[in-house]
Amino acid sequence: MAAAPKRPPLPVILLANDLLDGDVVFARAEDAGALSWTRDPALALVAAEEPDAVRLEGFAAAEIAAQHVVDAYLVDVAIGADGPVPRHFRERFKTLGPSNRPDLGKQAGEGIAARRSA
Amino acid sequence: MYRYDEFDERFVRDRVAQFSDQVARRLDGSLTEDEFKPLRLKNGVYLQLHAYMLRIAVPYGTLSSKQMRQLALIGERFDRGYGHFTTRQNLQFNWPKLRDVPEILGLLADVEMHCIQTSGNCIRNVTADHFAGVAQDEIEDPRPVCELIRQWSTAHPEFSYLPRKFKIAATGAQHDRAVTKAHDIGLRIVRHPDSGEIGYEISVGGGLGRTPMIGKVVRDFLPKPDLLAYLEAIMRVYNQEGRRDNKYKARVKILVHEIGTEEFRSRVEAEFATLDGPSVNADPEELARIEAYFAPPAYETLPRESAALAAARASNPAFDRWAGTNLTPHRADGYSAVTISLKPIGLAPGDATSEQMRVIADLAERYSFDELRVTHAQNIVLPHVRQDDLHAIWEALVPAGLATANSGLITDIIACPGLDYCALATARSIPIAQAIQQRFEDAERQTEIGELNIKISGCINACGHHHVGHIGILGLEKRGIESYQITLGGDATENAAVGEILGPGLPAEEVPGAIEAIVGVYEAERNDGERFIETVKRVGLSPFKAAFKELSHAAD
Ligand code: HEM
Ligand code: SF4
User: Fold this and answer.
1) Closest residue of B to A106, CA-based?
2) Looking at the 3D structure of chain B, how many domains does it have?
3) What is the ipTM of this complex?
């Protein structure tokens, strides 16, 4: 019997590591509403309601099965001026990069692409 | 240095081909992540916070110039131009892409390197005294036996699925620079008190992590030829009886602790007695073949002390300071071992750029018989340098940012990657190291304080050896912020000890002040010429606890 998935408090975003490249990707909504991945945390889709979070979970499971990403999970966020910011410091580092190397990672604009395949 | 024979070469190449195939099958969907993960781990590939991580074995910490240059090249071509030297004497790259790993492994194989058994529940890369073959207090170079163990343990069919990881460290010296007592097995080369014969003292069940333990001696003296049979007996007892029900209780230290050293010893001895020694032990010819690779280089006959060195020291205070801290006496007259500090003030401990790696490789080629060592303290050693050449070496190190004069001092801090990179971390460690280094930047002050080891881990796994730091710092999470627990009195040497907690955890900004307070107590209490750890052992924890308490009151 599968236990009910432990879900962080809302609102949440979905993040994961790209299977091939290993860098951090975020679920986003395309204009037509379909879900896809972005490398830019500012574009992450924020799920404010339960059904949206369930939809992100479904997307995570499908994308893991499709060998696109690994280690996908929901992260609770606050909404800042530039978009969602994870509440926990661990996940904040994950959206930024190493704090001792501001020249590396997303904080330095590295690998920020609107779409995963870009 | 050891050179691969045909068998080693073919084995490593086959492994590259095998892993390339596994990556391809992962990418085309024939392997799921659950199936692939143990395979990638056996080849040193982890998933970290921001990227994959590749851990490259540096067997017993010895590298050639050519190998170091290849690491520089890999760092430049496939990473971000730097690598991280670790307490396991390995090198980690923080940003490789999975798609590039097969090519990286091929480049490593070109220089007789690999990532095999740098992870997973197997016998890991064997570590050794970084002054092996150099130190004046050494009975015998431990590296031939490390190489023998490497060959014996690599893809050992019986010991490839152990209850948990297994780490072996070896030293041939009196002074333990390899932290042997904090390893699953610690080997010390010793001389028999009566016969003078050379053999091994074997400890089992040391380890750090969430349950730190100091290894227990199970054999005072094991004759040299019996080594592999005895190791096999230990491994078999552990493999069969080590706990597999709970990964936190699966290390051999827990087995030794639960059944007791006596009982563990008698089970090992019983197993050892049933083994057919000659069929397990290494053929003496094979051992001799390996030993020949570690024969000392062709030293010149030189006067004991170098006049050129003395003159350079007298005329250049900065060089003099560096020579005072970063040199170790060599067994050959007129030579020294040089420690190149990877701890410049304010940078990440153990990180080296590709350019720095090339500078170091060139120096080793020109001045140190083409040989380098990686230390568990995350520094690099040029093991055999003519004292006459020291000034020229220093002049080459200065512009590369590699001449920090702090070996063994308060700013020579060990720190694991922590939450800046590591997916398991509960807090950051690198910025704590940086803040302490900045606080104690003044060179005079560092010299006055003298030998003091600070070791920092970003979680309970203790990769940064905090338990055995004179001052240990453990990063945890407390109520949603990073919090640092400070321990005192740990010791990584032959007097191995686990440090004790001083008081409640502190927020990051208060850590340098707390270190200052601890150092203040030492300065007030120390006798003439007494090192920090000696004072701590003599006066005990209470004055330090008192100072610490005042500090946390002040913080309220
Ligand atoms: C991907 C990053 C890493 C992971 C996932 C990792 C994982 C672990 C774990 C789970 C333990 C605890 C083992 C136990 O208690 O049974 C451990 C211990 C240890 N690791 Fe790491 N580690 C990482 C990086 C490092 C680094 C960078 C170093 C060297 C700086 C290192 C050196 C050690 C050492 C020395 C120990 C303690 C000795 C012992 O095994 O008891 N590890 N590591
Ligand atoms: S001690 Fe913890 S944080 Fe540091 S490298 Fe090991 S697992 Fe990561």
Assistant:
1) B50
2) 4
3) 0.93
